[in-house]
Design goal:
The protein is built from two helices and five strands; from the N terminus they run H-E-E-H-E-E-E. With about 110 residues, the chain is of the alpha+beta class. It is globular.
Length: about 110
């Protein structure tokens, strides 16, 4: 029995979630606004069953790193795509944020 399909884009409140490609580009726009560097978008949809896109970016200071993580979580939550899970911390120098069809590594 299939309980969840990543292709199901309707939220519990009936609102439509962002499709994977526009979501990935929204992440890239936010990263650019926050002056992240080395931004890369990988289309992993054909090779992965858990996500369609993987976004990589570099922050050059703990302050910038914190701002990126906080803003991504806030902005995408407001857009109806809250983070499902987060690994890593400011202290570790990296973070992996799972937004469903888009995974972000800073």
């Amino acid at each position: 029995m299939l309980c969840y399909s990543p292709r199901d884009r309707v939220r519990r409140n009936g609102a439509r979630a962002l499709e994977p490609e526009p979501l990935a580009h929204r992440v890239i726009d936010l990263l650019s606004e926050l002056q992240a560097e080395d931004i890369a978008l990988l289309d992993i949809g054909k090779a992965s069953s858990f996500a369609d896109y993987f976004v990589l970016a570099t922050a050059h200071s703990p302050l910038q790193f914190g701002a990126i993580v906080e803003r991504l979580g806030h902005e995408l939550k407001e857009a109806g795509v809250p983070p499902r899970h987060q690994e890593g911390r400011k202290e570790s120098g990296w973070v992996l944020i799972d937004f469903g069809d888009v995974i972000v590594h800073v």
